[in-house]
Write a structure and sequence with these properties.
Layout: H1 10-13, H2 39-54, H3 62-73, H4 78-90, H5 98-110, H6 114-126, H7 134-146, H8 150-162, H9 170-182, H10 186-198, H11 206-218, H12 222-234, H13 242-254, H14 259-269, H15 274-293, H16 301-312, H17 316-332, H18 337-353, H19 357-372, H20 379-395, H21 399-417, H22 422-437, H23 441-457, H24 464-479, H25 483-501, H26 506-521, H27 525-543, H28 548-564, H29 567-585, H30 593-605, H31 609-627, H32 632-647, H33 651-668, H34 674-689, H35 693-699
Pfam families: Sel1, TPR_10, TPR_12
Keywords: Coiled coil, Cytoplasm, Cytoskeleton, Microtubule, Motor protein, Repeat, Signal, TPR repeat
Protein name: Tetratricopeptide repeat protein
């Protein structure tokens, strides 16, 4: 709200002796005193005008006040010009006229009146009665701020913070906010407090930020009340206190902060505000759905914002519920494409976080189709949708489709953001992981070297991006049989993640799994067990008792125990892993091939050949369907099947499986790799058992101990 002078700015506008209003005499007409006004008479009339406007000692009369302000304003009195401008802006005692308001503000501002200068700045900033002009607004704010007017100092700080009418300069924003804060301006307190919380333009200091937000909130600043509510809700810098958050959000909502309703709804729906709060939140949602049925637009917005909030809180089930309710509303008005564009990715993300990749697929496909059908195709939104669609194909094991979509996303991001932009590097990271899965190690290494070069050209320090690059490079070295380098890279990645995330970080668990797999392939079983057990412990805390990442760790331990001959433990682990995987992903997900293979191998080593054959053949069918015919995981299952047949004395059935396994492993892995050795040894044993010593001897020199 713009200010008028009144008695609040006496030091600036009034000379000595002007502060006390005199009750006016009704018989005096302004027209009788126009000629030859003395300074004393001007003071008296100005005080009378203020008294009429405020109703101070006399019946309030805006018409009389405006008439007096005009008499004095026309004689060049800056304060009266400001007040007359305000009267025109508000329509108090005169017909409302923004043009006349601006004319009188300008007269006052040109005489150096700081409040008039600030009001002009607001009109130019907001486009009130004049074309919007941020540069003009900035100029007037600066004139008023330089005179020490707190509100202008605050708005000048906002201009610098937003880069509105001037180049963005957070340090300057902080400087002007501080000047306004020193004068007790609540809005400046809120704005500066927010910058301290974020560490923008000033060193992050949550204690100072919270103190400033509290001061502003006590003065009724709704933005400060909302932000302080978030601080209490999330425990950001202070202990979490949902009751305090609710109280602050209620005040912020009453003050016009609509986003507070979403925060309140979330807290109430999660039963943190008692039955009355839960009933109130449900009423808000029911009201939105009722309005939608009545044809009112925009009613899906609360569900969309709740979906985003639940997604931020890591609650995919609630995210899905809100997104579905919002989508049901949006479907009633398909011409409102904006709502669909907002809700479809939220629903797909919620389903993906629950490992429901097949369920997410049609929503992502629809999202891409919807954007591509738009006249401008919105390239920013399209590249995000393509990336999500690619990742979903990746998670479904549809690797060729994933690669095509990643490449399309990559091309768009390079064009939009530049070759070495973070958005481009993020896609390259996904592609390197994909190429490691498909064992296209040449492609993977080329991508990783590009990522490494970009990292060195940028900050170049130890961060999670570097750890990811090192981990993927380690896989390539492992495949090439360079185990020393693979171990060094994994250990460096582990050290980086432990430094950045702490000993219990999720990224730490992933690197530990990589190290465990490396140690297992080298026969270093005790080291592998420690790595796998530590990874499982971290994941159990991070994800809870049921998550596919937990199932993968159980499977890793089961496979290790199988290799160590601890078959009972192996069976327990693998059975748990498969049951959890089927529950979370569905019985037909390609990721379950790992569990089928591991359990089949355990049963084979226990002599339960019928069960082993069923699981191993199922794993082979899934892997051939998703990975193609020449993949090392297919070779692993072929090796296990061949070993199983050989253990039963069925050399004729074993031989084609082992021959094919060796052929794949020699193409994909280096000759020195332990897995190549293991298959050579198994096939050599088969040849000896069937009296083909020459063939066995041809394999034997390069066949050393190992398990495939």
């Amino acid at each position: 709200m713009r200010l008028r002078t009144a008695a609040r700015v006496v030091p600036f506008l009034l000379c000595a002796g002007w502060a006390t209003a005199t009750v006016p005499t009704p018989r005096v007409s302004p027209l009788q005193v126009i000629a030859d006004l003395s300074r004393q008479e001007t003071q008296r009339l100005y005080a009378q005008a203020i008294a009429y406007r405020e109703g101070d000692g006399v019946r309030q009369d805006h018409f009389r006040a405006a008439e007096l302000f005009r008499v004095i304003a026309e004689r060049g009195h800056a304060g009266a010009q400001l007040d007359l401008g305000y009267a025109y802006e508000q329509g108090e005692g005169v017909p409302r006229s923004v043009g006349e308001a601006m004319r009188w503000y300008l007269k006052s501002a040109e005489q150096g009146n700081a409040i008039a200068q600030h009001n002009l700045g607001l009109m130019y900033r907001n486009g009130t009665g004049v074309a919007q002009d941020p540069v003009q607004a900035f100029g007037w704010f600066r004139k008023a701020a330089q005179q020490g007017y707190a509100r202008a100092q605050r708005d000048l700080g906002t201009a610098y913070e937003d880069g509105n009418g001037v180049d963005k300069d957070l340090a300057e924003a902080v400087r002007w906010y501080r000047k306004a804060v020193d004068q007790g301006d609540p809005t400046a307190q809120a704005d500066l407090g927010w910058l301290y919380m974020q560490g923008e333009g000033v060193a992050q200091d949550k204690k100072k930020g919270i103190n400033l937000l509290r001061k502003a909130a006590l003065h009724g600043n709704s933005f400060a009340q909302f932000q302080l509510g978030r601080v209490h809700e999330t425990g950001n810098g202070i202990p979490k206190d949902e009751a305090a958050a609710i109280d602050l959000y209620e005040k912020a909502l009453a003050g016009g902060q609509d986003e507070a309703q979403v925060r309140l709804a979330r807290l109430y729906l999660d039963k943190l505000g008692g039955p009355a709060g839960e009933h109130r939140a449900q009423a808000w949602l029911d009201e939105a759905e009722a309005k939608a049925k009545a044809g009112e637009p925009g009613t899906s917005d609360i569900f969309y914002r709740l979906a985003i909030l639940y997604n931020e809180l890591g609650k995919p089930v609630q995210t899905e519920s809100m997104a579905r309710r919002g989508l049901a509303i949006a479907e009633r008005a398909p011409e409102d494409g904006k709502a669909l564009l907002e809700l479809l990715p939220q629903l797909a993300a919620a389903l993906s976080q629950q490992m429901k990749f097949s369920a997410a697929h049609p929503y992502l496909k629809r999202l891409v189709t919807l954007i591509e059908g738009m006249p401008d195709k919105d390239p920013e939104r399209l590249q995000r949708a393509l990336r999500a669609f690619a990742l979903n194909h990746h998670n479904l094991g549809e690797l060729a489709q994933a690669e095509a979509l990643y490449l399309r996303t990559l091309g768009m991001r390079e064009q939009l953001y530049g070759r070495d932009s973070p958005a481009v590097l993020e896609v390259l990271d996904k592609m390197s992981a994909l190429y490691n899965v498909t064992e296209e190690f040449g492609k993977a290494e080329a991508v990783l070297q590009r990522l490494l070069a970009a990292h060195k050209a940028g900050a170049g320090g130890d961060d999670t991006k570097l750890a990811s690059i090192l981990g993927n490079l380690a896989l390539i070295h492992w495949a090439r049989g360079d185990f020393t380098q693979a171990e060094l890279l994994n250990k460096r990645a582990l050290a980086i993640r432990e430094k950045l995330e702490g000993a219990q970080g999720k990224g730490v668990s992933s690197t530990l799994n990589n190290l465990g797999s490396l140690y297992q392939s080298l026969g270093r079983y005790e080291e592998a067990e420690k790595a796998f057990e530590r990874a499982l412990a971290i994941k159990s805390v991070a994800y809870g008792p049921e998550h596919y990442s937990i199932a993968a760790s159980l499977n890793n331990l089961g496979g290790l125990y199988d290799a160590m001959g601890r078959y009972a433990q192996a069976e327990t682990m693998c059975t748990r892993a498969l049951a959890m995987g089927e529950k979370l992903l569905g019985r037909d997900h390609p990721e379950l091939a790992y569990a089928h293979h591991a359990l089949g191998s355990v049963y084979a080593h226990q002599g339960k050949f019928s069960q082993a054959k069923d699981y191993l053949e199922r794993a082979l069918a899934v892997r051939e369907r998703t990975l193609g015919p020449e993949h090392s995981e297919i070779a692993a299952t072929l090796h296990a099947l061949g070993a199983m047949y050989l253990a039963q004395g069925q050399a004729a059935n074993a031989e084609p499986h082992l021959v094919r396994a060796l052929s794949i492993r020699e193409r994909v892995l280096l000759p020195s790799h332990p897995y190549v050795h293991a298959t050579r040894k198994q096939l050599a044993d088969l040849y000896r058992q069937t009296g083909r010593e020459a063939l066995a001897n041809a394999l034997a020199p390069r066949a050393t101990a190992g398990k495939g």
